[in-house]
Amino acid sequence: MTTYLLAAMTGLLTGAGLIVAIGPQNILVLQQGVRRVHVNPVIVVCALSDVVLIVAGVAGLGALVSAHPAVVTVAKIAGGAYVVALGLLAARRCLRSSEAITANADEVRTASRWVAIGSALALTWLNPHVYLDTVLTMGAIANSHGNAKWAFAIGACAASVLWFTLIGRGGSRLAPVFAKPRAWKILDGIVAVIMVGMGATLLFSA
């Protein structure tokens, strides 16, 4: 029993260490939380996707991905291009006038739930770092725990669910701060730098 509990705690801490790093997924969930728009569906998609990938890694998919590096290369190119495009869109929003930012905020509030879900799916499944972290790294560490590997997986999955819920629901508390257009300019500027930088890194590494 102690072995399984320790494996679960190790999975929780390892999962938290890999997921908490700033990335496209986290930025999207935080943005939706701040806007208070389709927060729950985005949290569910991101958390459930991580759970599926972690389970796949523990089940042995990581070895299959390692045997076919071309898959990772394609994911880097597609994911890098997509993330750069999102960064450029954020940069354009940052350079808009205050009136345009207010209008854009109104448009976002009425945007389709499926658009938000589609963005969450794309930023998850087109991001090669997700495969490296959840499938390869998590899978390798989990399997080092022998019979307790699924306890490790449960801990890692719990970390993902807790983290996305925290930043998604917690982001809504920042909404009053973003009542001013200037705050959105700053956020979009930060998002643009992070997204373009990450996307360019992915493209060059491919």
Describe the structure.
- It is found in: Cell membrane.
- It is a multi-pass membrane protein.
- This is Putative amino acid transporter.
- There is one protein chain.
- This protein is an all-alpha fold and 206 residues long.
- It has one domain.
- 83% of the residues lie in helices and 0% in strands.
- It has helices at 2-19, 24-35, 39-59, 61-66, 69-94, 98-109, 113-125, 128-143, 149-171, 181-205.
- Helix 1 (2-19) runs antiparallel to helix 8.
- The chain is globular.
- The model is unreliable at 99-103 (pLDDT under 50).
Q: Could you give the distance between the termini? A: 44 Å
Percent of residues in helical segments? over 70%
Rounded to an integer in angstroms, the radius of gyration calculated over CA atoms is 18 Å
User: What is the overall pLDDT average?
Assistant: 78
Q: What is the number of helical segments per DSSP (H or I, 4+ residues)?
A: 10
**Domain module tally:** 1
Number of strands: 0
The biggest beta sheet is recorded as:
none
Shape: globular
Residue windows where pLDDT falls under 50 for at least 5 positions: 99-103
H-E string: HHHHHHHHHH
Proportion of residues in extended strands: under 5%
Q: Tell me the structural class.
A: mainly alpha
